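About this split. The held-out portion is used to measure sequence recovery: a designer receives only the structure tokens and must propose an amino acid at every position. Recovery is the fraction of positions where the proposal matches the reference. Here is one held-out target exactly as it appears in the evaluation file.
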């Protein structure tokens, strides 16, 4: 939510960068693909270089930057599509799985139970599910919840940079549970209000 507000403020800058990249022949799909590869790389780095978690953090940062820019290029070049949206969302989920799997693989080194890592992943995916379900019911979900994917990944980056991945995972778990409940209750209230209106 916080990062979405920041993104809205810098939208003109992102738009200008999107146009420049588009003019240079760079496509949204290319940026999406590179972002995905970097996220998978981050997961692998968490698994094979546990003593250098900052490397995975850098990979996540670069992946996130490209994830923002692919949408900017798509809008600037008129290449926004439902298929692109599907691909972007699907690859985002796979990326999260890869990153958390890398941490779980080295859970002993990171001094955290793999169950905690699994729960952090599970509730992160449930947040996405709650949004998708709400939107399928024609409920506007943009900006609902304090811990969207960008915020969770930023937390992981911060704590991975300073070598305290386990603290980041615990905070993400708490934030993910709270955000999922926020979205669930928001959808439940919206459906309840809609039913009252329909019943007169």
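Reference sequence for scoring:
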């Amino acid at each position: 939510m916080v990062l979405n507000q920041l993104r809205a403020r810098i939208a003109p800058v992102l738009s200008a960068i999107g146009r420049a990249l588009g003019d240079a022949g760079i496509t949204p799909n290319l940026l999406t693909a590179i972002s995905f590869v970097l996220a998978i790389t981050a997961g692998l780095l968490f698994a094979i270089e546990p003593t250098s978690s900052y490397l995975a953090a850098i990979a996540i940062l670069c992946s996130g930057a490209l994830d923002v820019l692919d949408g900017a290029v798509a809008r600037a070049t008129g290449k926004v599509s439902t298929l692109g949206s599907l691909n972007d969302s699907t690859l985002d989920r796979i990326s999260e799985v890869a990153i958390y799997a890398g941490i779980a693989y080295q859970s002993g080194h990171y001094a955290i139970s793999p169950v905690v890592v699994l729960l952090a992943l599970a509730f992160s995916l449930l947040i996405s599910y709650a949004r998708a379900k709400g939107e399928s019911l024609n409920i506007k979900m943009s900006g609902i919840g304090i811990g969207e994917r960008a915020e969770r990944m930023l937390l992981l980056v911060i704590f991975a940079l300073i070598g305290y991945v386990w603290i980041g995972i615990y905070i993400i778990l708490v934030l993910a549970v709270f955000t999922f409940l926020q979205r669930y209750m928001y959808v439940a209230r919206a459906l309840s209000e809609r039913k009252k209106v329909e019943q007169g």
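Annotator remark: Residues 165-198 form the longest helix (34 residues).
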